[in-house]
Design brief:
single chain; mainly beta; 7-stranded antiparallel sheet; 5-stranded antiparallel sheet; 3 helices
């Protein structure tokens, strides 16, 4: 009889523990309302400085500017590639941030569809830090606001380069944890050349042609940005000349920059 009572008491205690566990909810991590983040990782945050400026004595390169630096514009997109080690696995991911209302934000669900991210391997709308993560590195690319076609953004047509997109990238940026925002500092990949009222011929220059965002989550991510080099390009004359962006190979006079 005593053994039977002890056995029933043990079963009742076990049932109460399981019931309590079933009724518990995970606490939200500090700074987020996503209770699933406990298991799925902590979303990374980003701090992105103003766009790198060109020479102080020249007009800036974009439509909306301040006196001190070129401004990011509504709809600008930054594409991200990440490599990390989680336990024993090498994990590669891609993602994007879009500039809305003065802030850099992850894609919405609608933007995720509009930018055809289904064609981009390893794409995650929000990059996350996992407790087992080590050796986390991010690289970022800026090529305007173009939408990928089958994972590729066309920057310039290789046959008739327009030279109108200011391409910028970051150096590989280490991520130590999710407690501090990741600072992404961009550098220009091109020289800025001002057009003139008459045609201007540039020889021995190049330009970026495509950004293959589908490669950002692969071992081949270093070749995501394609270029053509050794070209002779003619900038058409205009009464209101604008700016063009080229990869210089030593043939551009300083007063053109």
């Amino acid at each position: 009889m005593n053994r039977t009572i002890q056995h029933l008491s043990h079963l009742l205690a076990t049932a109460l523990v399981l019931l309590a566990m079933a009724n518990c909810t995970a606490d939200a991590l500090p700074g987020t309302t996503d209770t699933a983040a406990t298991d799925a990782g902590i979303p990374l945050r980003f701090a992105i400085p103003p766009r790198a400026a060109y020479a102080d004595d020249r007009a800036d390169t974009r439509v909306a500017q301040s006196a001190d630096y070129a401004l990011w514009e509504e709809g600008d997109v930054i594409w991200l590639g990440s490599t990390s080690r989680i336990s024993r696995d090498i994990v590669r991911r891609s993602s994007a941030l879009i500039y809305h209302g003065g802030a850099w934000l992850p894609f919405t669900e609608e933007e995720t569809a509009r930018y055809a991210t289904a064609d981009i391997p390893g794409f995650e709308r929000v990059l996350k830090w996992h407790p087992q993560t080590t050796d986390y590195t991010l690289t970022a690319y800026y090529a305007g606001s173009g939408i990928p076609l089958r994972g590729v953004i066309t920057i310039n047509d290789a046959r008739t380069p327009a030279l109108t997109t200011d391409v910028m990238t970051t150096a590989p940026t280490p991520v130590a944890n999710a407690d501090v925002p990741v600072v992404l500092t961009f550098l220009h990949r091109c020289f800025r050349v001002q057009g003139g009222t008459a045609d201007k011929v540039l020889s021995g220059v190049g330009c970026h042609t495509t950004l293959d965002v589908a490669r950002l989550a692969t071992q081949d991510s270093d070749s995501a940005l394609s270029t053509i080099e050794g070209c002779t390009l003619t900038l058409p004359g205009s009464a209101s000349p604008g700016y063009y962006f080229v990869i210089a190979e030593g043939s551009i006079a300083p007063d053109n920059l």
